[in-house]
Amino acid sequence: MDPHGGRQTVVTVALTAMAAAFSLLLLVMIGGGFFIFLVGIVLAIAAFGGLHYLLWGKLLTEETAGEREEEQLRQRALEDWADPPSRHMGP
Question: Which of 1, 12, 14, 57 is the least crowded, having the fewest Cβ atoms under 10 Å away?
Fold first, then answer.
């Protein structure tokens, strides 16, 4: 394992964050502040999507976990029934 792997990751993330911050600042300066509203709208949509996932997606995933487990067991039983282990007949 490379001992400098963590340092390289931090440098990559920091440089990417600095480039994104510079780009956002440039867009705000060019657009006269209009871009701030656009970023706010995008963040609101992302927050709504996250809330939707927490309220519905995760809840339904947990509710259907039992059904998925039953279906997997049924599939395994069908596979075992369709392809029984071969029996070796000795001499």
Answer: 1
Predicted confidence (pLDDT) per residue in 50-83, tens digit: 999 888 887 888 888 888 888 899 888 888 877 6
Tokens for 11? 């440098």
Structure tokens at 33: 């502040």
Token pair 């931090």: residue? 10
pTM, entire model: 0.46
Contact 61, 67 (CB under 8 A): no
Token representation of residue 67: 């059904």
| Neighbour tally for 86: CB within 10 Å | 6
